């Protein structure tokens, strides 16, 4: 049980009817949290932190109840779901945000594009700590394992500084068959590549191809996940890099 009832927003990018969020929300509610579920109506995978064009207009919603939890769907992205909850559209703003359980892994530097991870980073914009959880399978058989890890992570992050964000990947296996939990660095994306081509209609398009396999880098989320470990990576969103030299150099060019 958490030390006090904490309001937790649960969202995802697979849609509010997806099995991952349907497994996660009841598990978190059983831990004693005040659960609010708001997620996209449809699959919004890969949308990153997009929400432009989704404000200053009415947002269509839908809802249903399962296992005692109300699931709300919105016509929008995960980042928009977080923003709406934080501004009080669905009642008191959440104290914490939990994004997932995403179907399929979210590893490497390409998590920048993940709607699951972007939802957590959007929460951190206003100082709300968040956890993004993904499971390493497209058709998972062990949702309860990821839900258990998510609940433990939520309990830990509640005591950390405001705006703390974790991205977690969980192997799709029973809890007692996990190799352990490890901090992981972000791998360079080498599993897929984007290739330019032309559609039969003559229009340009980009397709995703599998990259040739190569040795994994030890200590990365890719390597540790392959060895059966739960990977945990603290991340931050957009932040300033202190580089006075760059500003000085640009200033000199502008006055020439």
UniProtKB/TrEMBL annotation:
Known InterPro entries for this protein?
SurE (IPR030048), SurE-like_Pase/nucleotidase (IPR002828), SurE-like_sf (IPR036523)
Q: What is the top EC class of this enzyme, as a single word?
A: hydrolase
Q: Per the UniProt record, which EC number(s) apply here?
A: 3.1.3.5
Q: Where is the Survival protein SurE-like phosphatase/nucleotidase domain?
A: 8-190
Q: What catalytic activity does the UniProt entry give for this protein?
A: a ribonucleoside 5'-phosphate + H2O = a ribonucleoside + phosphate
Annotated keywords: Hydrolase, Metal-binding
Show the GO MF annotations. 5'-nucleotidase activity; metal ion binding
Keyword Hydrolase annotated: yes
Pfam families per record: SurE
Annotated family:
Belongs to the SurE nucleotidase family.
What's the protein called, per UniProt? 5'-nucleotidase
Q: Could you tell me which species this protein originates from?
A: Kribbella soli
What gene name is given for the protein in this entry? surE
